[in-house]
Every structure is written in structure tokens, then in C-alpha cells.
Amino acid sequence: MLEKRHLRRRYNVYWVRVKVPDKVRHVIGKRELQKNLFTTSLIEANKRKHKVVAEFKEMIHHAEMKISGEFHELSKEDQIRQVALEYRKLDENSKSDFQHTFNDVFEAEVTGIYGEKEADIIFNHTHPQWTGDNPEPKVIKAISDAVQIADPTSNPLSIVSKIFLSESNYLKEGTYRRKKKHIDEFIKWSGNPDITKVTKKIAGNYMTFINQRAELAPATQRNKKNDVGSLFNWAEGRGYIEDNPFRKIRITNTLIQNSDSRTPWSNDEIIQFLSNKKIKINDFSATVIALYTGMRIEEICLIKGKDIEGKCIKILKGKTKASSRAIPISVSIQPIIDRLCNLSGKDYLLLGLKSGGYDNKRSANFSKRQTRLRKKVGLPEGVVFHSLRNTFATRLENLGVPKNHINQLLGHEDGNMALDVYSDGLAIEPLRKSMSKLNYGDLVEKFIQSKFHELFQIK
User: For the whole model, what pTM was predicted?
Assistant: First the structure.
């Protein structure tokens, strides 16, 4: 059945209709916003409605900002852009009609934002006989942006991206925020041109700009390229542009081409890292838990005392269905887990972490700290926190532990269709038996126990 949300049929023609919330009706002056889509086809109406709905919702949002005071918290330049969004024409007027109806309204709004003296400078500084001051460049840029945004015949990136993102509500919140951030960065870099003006050369220059930022991880560079490219891919499908300028543009950064693969930690590297004076309780605990459980960093950061049961760590959810699992606790780290539980109770074992990143993950800032520590210690590029999982898996494999046991402990699909579909997973005792084989040698084991006593002040 075809979607009819925000659509109304009048005289056999489909219209968009969006109800105006009660609290902003006095600002907008209407109970309902409507626009004729000029089609009798429900399929076509569903294609055309998204842009109109997004613009209506932008008007409502702008009105809500005025009431809440958020509008006045914006910079004056962003207030100008918001005014332009509110007055963007929703019908198919010509350019001359737009200028005639918009100019008076816009001048009044700018005067209200800046005051008469500053507004006089803004609107008259280009006159041949003008002898006064010139407005700041950022004000001129805001005025230029506003005229483009309000013009119904133009499609600046800022407008098109809002429509695109309004249709991306199926994305996870973190993915949506990441995509929006990367698109906004491109809009700022490019100067918010009309989407039809973004050429292959501009797209290529942006990729060069990204490639030259050595501080960006390869995955971040790929995300930036793919997120911006997804906007243009959508715009091509909607008829805004004929070709996606980001198509077939490759990331050529040498950091990506020559980046080392993740490498298991050697015993020397384990001791080298943990013996550093900057290592704190959380750094130590997360590292040894990863060494003896193969857990991901986010999984470790989310462990609570209540998740420790029957000498196992229970992970209730994760990246995939297989991520939900129980991991037997090695005798080598049982005292460390017990101590953390005593300190935290039923709360997180790693206390004091501040969430962050696109997904507001508890591991976001902690992961960055681990990267900085690793670099200060001088570990090789491929030896990263996540490769502790590689270390765990490699050690078990070398000890002859069955592959399906290792996959179960890591939270991976087994790769055997029958097991994946019909099995609820291995019983805990066979896993416990396999885990009992794990050992990093006397030197590492004794060092970890010594460091544990030192950090937790155990005599």
C-alpha cells in the first residue's frame, strides 16, 4: 500500500499538508501549511512531497526557535540564514517575483537583527557614492548565502542536504550525526554553492584536502568521502544533478595504501605498554581484560558489576547477534575483576569514563587516550588496542583451541551455516576448558600481577 502521509487529495490533485503545532500558530499565522504538487499520481506525489515537507518543517522549526529564544542565541550571521530559510518560497515563482517579494521583508529582518545603523552599511556600502565603513566579510557572506537560500530557483547545498537528511531517518542516530557532520564540513569548505555547480574538479580538490590531513585515520577519510558522496548520489536520483561528481574518485592517501595491518601484541610489547608511568587503573584493566577475553573496547567499557555472574562476563548486546555471549573469566584476571567489582558495585567496572563520538559511545574518548598512550610508548603502528583481540585469538589458535570455540568467545559468526542457524551456542564448560589453556608465559603473568598490586595498592 502506498504511503499517504502528509498528502491530501483535492479535486483529483495531490497536495502536501503539514499541521502547524499550536504553540507556533501565532508566529506562522496558519493552522496548516499546504502546497499543490500538481499531480494526480500517488506515486509521483510521494516523490515530490519530501522537499516540500522538509521546507515546511524548517519553517516550523524556525518559529519554534523564535519562541524558545534559540534563534537569538545564534550568531547574527546564522540568524540571517535562518530568516532566508523561513522565507524561501514554496511555489514556482520566477526569479523576478522572488526578488520583488523577498527584498522588503529581508531588509526589515536584517534591520531588526543588526539595527538601523549597521543595516544601512550592509545594504548601501556597494553604492558608488558610499563613503562610510564596509561591513565585515562574514556579514557579506551571510547576506550572499541568504539570498541564495531564499531563491526558489536555486538549490544550495545547505537546502538540498536538509531534504536529503530528512529522508535519512532510517539511519542509526550515530550514523546520522556522522553523515550530517561530514556533509556540513563539505558545505563550509566549498562555500555552500548551488549543487549543480559542484564539479568533478571540486570533488577531487576536496578529496585532496582530506588526503593531506595526516591526523585523519583511514576509516575516517573513507567515511567523509562516502558520506558526502551519498548526498550527491541521492541528488542524482532525484534529478538535482545529472552525475555524482564523487563517483569513481579514489582515496589515494599513502597512509591508507601503506597502513600496517593489525598485529598481535608480543610479550615484550605488552610489558612495554603496561610498564609506562602514565598507565592508570582503567588503562591497565581494559588491556588485561582484552588480553584474556578478546572483548572489544566498547564491550569492556560497558561491563558492569551486575554482568559478572558464575565466574563469567555476560555481554547482552553488541555489534551483531553473535556478540551476545558469556565469556569465562581466566584465573589470571579473576582477582582483577573481583577488585573492580568491589570498587564499582553494580556500576561500570571502568569508572569515570566520559562518553563521546557520533554514537555517544562510552569508549570514544577512552579509545583516543589508548591511541595517545600507544604512540608515547612507541609501539608499532599495527599494534593497537583492537589487535588485542588478534592476540587473544592467535594465542588460542596456537594452543589448539577449536575454531568454533574461538569464534564463540570473540562474538563472531561461526561460518558454519548449520551452527549459525540451529545452534544457540556452546555450553560454558567447554569454553571454560579452552580458556584455561590461555597463558602468556611466566614473565607476563607475573608482571601483570605485580602491576595489579601496584595500581590497586594491594600489599
Answer: 0.57
